[in-house]
Design goal:
Length: 487
């Protein structure tokens, strides 16, 4: 296994390594060999994270006595973030607990993550269509059990637990028993959560510890266009594979379910791609708030009119009247295509569960394309209703759902949130509320991101007041939100 990893090194490094080994002593040869293995296992460094260590905001942070439990997509840049927390902040991998998501796991990345020495929880098999949350929360409970056992056995020196969530599931399954464990100072181990998705923001309002809301930070709103670009490429690829042509794709009617940040990004990208026939459905939008695309008020009409529906709601939008939705599908002359731009199998859940309960054709791959019915389908759900931008990750085509140079913005914001969580624990911030992500760090990270992309700096992100006003959550100080970082 180790020899195989050495052989995966770039040609020049492999040549230099073998040349060194040829004339070296056994001890030196062994040292060079294992150094090569470690280098092969390392994740790429992200420029934004490296820049943070050079910032005036930076101060040496020691996370050795902190525990991190994370529910994250197992992507290459997730490894980059954890590796940075280890190298820059001293986070111990044996005190790091990670569970991935079945639809976004890259097998190669999972093995590299496990090689870091962290506590990894494998995913359970999803037995029912539309039941990803149930399977995922089983995995989370098992991971929490490991953390709870370790805290009881050797957590006396623990200074805090940081919960890094993506979708609110870790918050939902958080065992209250953790909050009752006391450390050597005879105080309860503090807990602070971090949430990076809009769907997890609502669920983070009911938990007994502070939550740092990365999802609603001003800086995070810059991300959707990057994610949607990958989704559009995968959607085009899947549609072409089903017999379409590039020109025919432009003539399809695209329906956008949900017109928030992601929905708007989908709309603009479709228009830029020459797709002019776009409609949207969103119960939460005022009737006359948006001129384009055309708003469809009645859900069955929306389903009859669209050839492709891109789900951006973060919730099951068909459950309000699923029988009428099903009737609308049956009345169509050709099958409707469903594609998700959400964070799990959410938008089409009613249809997925209906397919599962009426299935008489054997097992269905919950991550594959699902025609309904199997023969002469009236609907096709791409990728099992999972977020389409992760399809290339799960199939092994790529270690990234979004190019590293794009997603490093989010990785930087998550890193800043971890630093903020430590400061909040030191300052004994225990009030269970939703807190803003520090404005100064948001400004720095956006500037570092635009600089790496060789783009002009964004004027609004030079103004800390503006950033705070456009970030949801409670500021930690009255007035402009700032953490008292030692400069």
């Amino acid at each position: 296994m180790r020899i195989e990893k050495i052989l995966q090194l770039p040609r020049r490094e492999l040549y230099q390594t073998m040349r060194t080994l040829a004339g070296a002593s056994p001890e030196h040869a062994r040292s060079v060999l294992f150094r090569g293995i470690r280098e092969a296992e390392n994740f790429n460094r992200l420029p934004v994270l490296e820049a943070m260590r050079k910032s005036a905001l930076w101060t040496a942070l020691d996370l050795r006595d902190y525990y991190l439990i994370a529910g994250q997509h197992c992507l290459g840049t997730t490894g980059s973030l954890l590796q940075w927390l280890r190298d820059a902040c001293g986070l111990k991998m044996k005190k790091t607990y990670l569970v991935g998501k079945s639809y976004s796991n890259n097998a190669r990345v999972v093995e590299k993550l496990k090689s870091l020495g962290l506590r990894y929880q494998a995913n359970s098999e999803q037995l029912t269509l539309g039941a990803f949350p149930e399977a995922y929360e089983t995995d989370i409970s098992q991971l929490y059990a490991k953390l709870l056992t370790d805290l009881k056995r050797g957590g006396q020196g623990a200074k805090g637990v940081i919960v890094l969530d993506d979708g609110g599931h870790l918050f939902k399954k958080f065992p209250r028993e953790i909050s009752k464990i006391k450390n050597l100072a005879n105080i309860q181990i503090p807990v602070i959560g971090i949430e990076q998705t809009s769907s997890g923001v609502a669920s983070s309002r009911i938990f007994p510890f502070p939550i740092i809301e990365v999802a609603t930070s001003a800086a995070k709103q810059l991300e959707p266009a990057s994610v949607v670009g990958i989704l559009k490429k995968q959607l085009d690829k899947d549609l072409l594979a089903k017999g379409g042509s590039s020109e025919a794709l432009k003539n399809l009617c695209y329906g956008i379910a949900g017109f928030g940040n992601v929905g708007k990004a989908v709309f603009h990208l479709l228009r830029q791609s020459g797709c002019d026939n776009v409609i949207f459905y969103d119960q939460k939008s005022p009737d006359n708030s948006i001129e384009q695309p055309k708003r469809i008020v009645e859900l069955p009409h929306f389903i009859r009119a669209a050839d492709v529906i891109v789900g951006c709601t973060g919730e099951d939008f068909m459950k309000i009247d699923f029988p009428a939705c099903l009737e609308a599908m049956e009345s169509r002359e050709r099958p409707i295509i469903f594609a998700s731009a959400s964070s799990k199998d959410t938008e089409f859940n009613s249809l997925l569960r209906h397919i599962h309960s009426n299935n008489r054709n054997g097992a269905i791959d919950p991550l594959g394309d699902i025609p309904y019915p199997k023969h002469n389908p009236m609907a096709i759900i791409l990728g099992g209703g999972m977020p389409l931008n992760f399809k290339q990750v799960h199939t092994g085509e790529s270690e990234h759902s979004v190019p590293p140079e794009e997603i490093q913005l989010t990785r930087g914001l998550l890193a800043a949130a971890v630093l903020q969580a430590k400061r909040m624990m030191e300052d004994k911030v225990v009030l269970a509320e939703q807190y803003q992500l520090d404005s100064a760090w948001q400004s720095f990270i956006v500037n570092a991101w635009t600089q790496d992309r060789k783009e002009p700096q964004l004027t609004t992100f030079q103004d800390l007041d503006w950033i705070s006003q456009h970030s949801l959550g409670k500021p930690l100080e009255t007035g402009v939100h700032r953490i008292k970082l030692k400069i």
